[in-house]
Amino acid sequence: MSTTQRAYNSAARDANRSEDRDITPETEFRETPLPWGKLSVLLALRLSEPVNFSLILPFVYQMVKGFDVAESPKDIAFYASLLFTSFSLFQTIMVMHWGRLSDRIGRKPVIMIGLTGNLVSSVLFGTSKTFIAAISARAFNGLMAGNVVVAKAVIAEISDNTNRARMMAMIPLMWNLGLIAGSAVGGIFSEPVTQYPRWFGNMRIFAEYPYLLPCLIGSSVTLFGLIIGLFKFEETLVRKKKSSSVATLGESTPLVQNAAKQQEHTIWQLLSPTVMRVMGTNVIICLALSMVNQSYPIFAATDPSDGGLGFSSRKIGISLAIASVAVIYLQLVAYPRLERRYGALGCYRRGQLIMIPHFLLMPFLSMLATSVEYPVASGFSPVRETILWAILIVLLLVRVVGSVLMLTSINLLTVNMAPTKSDLGFMNGMQQLAMSGMRIFGPLLSGLIWSWSIKHTWPFPFNSHLLWNICALMMLLAQQVSSKIPDSVNVFGPGETETEDEIRSSD
Asked: According to its UniProt record, where is this protein located (predicted)?
């Protein structure tokens, strides 16, 4: 890299830092109005995937139990984890390809393909009568699940430095809103013949397929997204003609901009030390979250005598939905303000700290659930159940806060590290690859740990607390790694290139 180009890159980056980060109480913060026309369409498209992903959470324990593949109730966690793992495995295989494909053919075609696959796989899952059929449907769903990568690239393309944090916060917002809707739908509408015999008692299709109704409701959300996307979504990928000669550049064209446009980056050039640290913490966090998020329904459905809560599918769905309501305020109001004050990196680190008490305290709820399930004095049971629900909701809210801070921040940090806008698809694909990869091992690992810990009468901390304690240690490790990430990742990077001095200083 030449001295002149390095100087231009450094000057451009300093200008961006001055504009974006040096905001004091005396300086008025002026945010570019959000492009609600484009944004609302994108958010509608994004909603379908989390709805269909989460609606199985409340009933997955009962569904696997009905397949009669587990030798004992203590083995159900392992087989349930395979359903989650199959989705993540095939998403990991394809996610980078979806990102690169959207860089070549456009964002809209890839989004439409993903929505179609989501719709088909949800119906197939609802009509599954064997474990093999269910796991195949989940695998196909993962194969087609690449829209999250494309959505982040679209956000980066329609935003600027003043509103990017707020807009990027919309991605996990829709994910969590989808979790609310999906969890509620899965808990309320699963096994409708049993839950609502007056309305569905004579419908043979729901007696034969007890989990089809919530899947059909989820598919209707996807169908709505397909229609909206087909007629309302506008392509955001701008294809630029390559200049045949530097001499064609006008004097009014900034040198740093043209240098960024012309520079092509290989995979190894993109993997700077800073990128590796950010992606490393992303891997750790996603592994911990995937272990706990997929294990919570199993933990909640497990008998209190085995370290669980003894909840029904309906209670599991309600608990997930109630806690997730806070996401609306966190994403729309709290996170943009926190990001302006602490930066995306500061929010990222704080989210990791918040998760530690959640992990350490959750397994103690089983003791309270035991007193509710098997009360010494029956008169105290309703009071204890109220206390159990109050503490559970508080701890789930803590998890929501920590997840919002970490996942929203990692979205920002990822797009900030992209050298040019043409690399956004790859960078987001790499981030999603790391997340999907950990979602392969997370559920499988947590299923094995949970089954092993409740099968044996080991003392604390190797009993039913083991899974939660491991996740707490992983958050501590993420804290250590993230402390070495430089503050320069708080600045949006596309259009600029990383200087050699910054690469060396990040080592």
From this structure: Membrane
Structure tokens given for 409: 């921040």
The letter for the amino acid at 493 is G
Q: Which residues of 210-232 are buried (b: 16+ CB within 10 A; e: fewer)?
A: bbbbbbbbbbebbeebbebbeee
Q: Which two tokens stand for residue 74?
A: 């203590």
CA distances from 479 to 121, 136, 182, 445 (A): 38, 37, 32, 22
Q: What is the CATH number of the domain that holds 193?
A: 1.20.1250.20
Residue with token string 């013949």: 193
pTM: 0.71
How many angstroms separate the CA atoms of 502 and 418, rounded?
15
CA angle, 407 then 45 then 437, to 5°:
40
Domains identified in the chain, total number? 1
For the stretch 398-431, pLDDT in tens is 998 999 899 889 888 887 776 666 666 667 777 7
Domain carrying residue 463: 42-232+272-493
Residue 147: burial class (beta carbons within 10 Å; 0-12, 13-18, 19+): buried
The dihedral formed by the CA atoms of 273, 279, 284 and 286, expressed in degrees to the nearest 10: 170
